[in-house]
Design a protein that fits this description.
Length: 367
């Protein structure tokens, strides 16, 4: 089938661009001597996971155990759950994954959680492996670098049923930078703070295997300090309009696009498409950043996607734009990671042809 014949709205993934993105990130990591543990929340598909593993990924990052379970059944056997796990059911699920031979490391950033996980691991006759999450500026989860992080590392390392693996941070505040230089500066400072924390921990006698940083813009800038052991970009497989705005990608690096159909041309300056917030999400950008509009609409005429209802997208067009109901438009979304989670299928395209259909197997796995 040719992709213009697909029923819409449809999510297209350009195979050549996807592969190029996967290979270039793997090459960059290899050249710098760091391991690559991509975050799969961006694609949530077994097929893309396998491409990442074939092309040099040494481990996998997820946010949720539901994602971990899907990725484990697709072949991932070394998972970082970059998230604070609490709750008895979650612990049973970790144990089940361990029993299947999957190595799983979870995030920790507070003493109550650590003490509780230690008790749960004891009850389940297992050992939970933990990494301390460090807040290097995003101000989401995580403890401050330095003393506080080392104290938690010590609490884990000395708990009878836990094993301390290292430190991780997500330098997502790079998304608020207004130039590639600032993105690089944020990446460098965040990773320096993490490396310094790891050194303090080593000096205190703690074994530190993992010094893990991660975001696409900082990884694309190669902005990590010596001493970092692994990087965890996620969005890089697809890129999106926000990565273009940050200078981390060009339009031709964007593998994921949305195909939509014009359903109405109610005014000379307005056209309406069949893709609204239930196709694109209302996300203006990652981590609360606020881009103008909702996507880059491709084509010879200036077309701005200015407004979304649930199932309608409003395009501002010029009166001489010939766009009519039934015409197709293709768009790069602001934030690709939330788009895949809204769809059952990714349609893989090579040139004009649809060559495969990949199920978004971990879509909606938020538990
Ligand atoms: N690591 C963690 C903990 C994250 O939360 C994210 C993204 O939200 C990433 C890595 C990947 O970052 P990016 O989406 O910039 O590729």
């Amino acid at each position: 089938m040719l992709f213009p014949e697909l029923e819409t709205p449809a999510v297209l993934v350009d195979h050549a661009t996807l592969l190029r993105n996967i290979q270039s990130m793997a090459k960059g990591a290899q050249a710098a001597g760091v391991q690559l543990r991509p975050h799969i929340k961006t694609h949530k598909t077994a097929e893309i996971l396998r491409l990442q593993l074939e092309h040099g990924a040494t481990g996998v990052t997820v946010a949720k155990l539901g994602e971990a379970e899907v990725m484990a059944s697709a072949g991932a056997n070394d998972l970082l759950v970059a998230y604070q796990i609490t709750g008895e059911q979650k612990c049973s699920r970790i144990k089940r994954l361990q029993d299947q031979g999957v190595r799983i490391t979870c995030g920790a950033d507070n003493r109550e959680q650590i003490e509780w996980l230690d008790r749960m691991a004891g009850t389940m006759a297992t050992t939970f492996e933990l990494a301390v999450e460090v807040n290097t500026g995003l101000d989401r989860a995580g403890v401050l670098p330095g003393e506080e992080a080392v104290r938690l590392a010590h609490a884990i390392a000395t708990a009878p049923n836990l094993r301390f693996r290292g430190f991780f941070t997500h330098e997502g505040h790079a998304y608020s930078a207004d130039s590639p230089e600032r993105v690089a500066g944020i990446g460098t400072r965040a990773s320096q703070a993490l490396v310094a924390t790891a050194r303090d921990a080593i000096q205190a006698g703690l074994p530190v295997e993992m010094v893990s940083v991660g975001s696409t813009p900082t990884a694309r800038a190669g902005a990590w300090a010596p001493g970092v052991t692994e990087i965890r970009p996620g969005n890089y497989v697809f890129h999106d309009r926000q990565q273009i705005a940050l200078g981390a990608a060009a339009e031709h690096d964007c593998a994921l696009t949305i195909l939509a159909t014009v359903i109405s041309r109610p005014a000379p300056d307005r056209a309406v498409i069949d893709a609204g917030s239930k196709t694109l999400s209302s996300d203006r950008g990652a981590h609360g950043s606020q881009m103008e509009g909702f996507g880059n609409v491709q084509g010879p005429f200036p077309r701005r996607l200015i407004r979304l209802s649930e199932e309608h997208g409003v395009l501002a067009v010029s009166p001489d734009d010939p766009l009519r109901p039934g015409d197709r438009v293709r768009m790069i979304p602001n934030h690709a990671c939330v788009v895949s989670n809204l769809h059952d299928w990714l349609f893989v395209v090579e040139g004009n042809r649809v060559t495969a259909q990949w199920r978004v197997a971990a879509r909606g796995r938020v538990q």
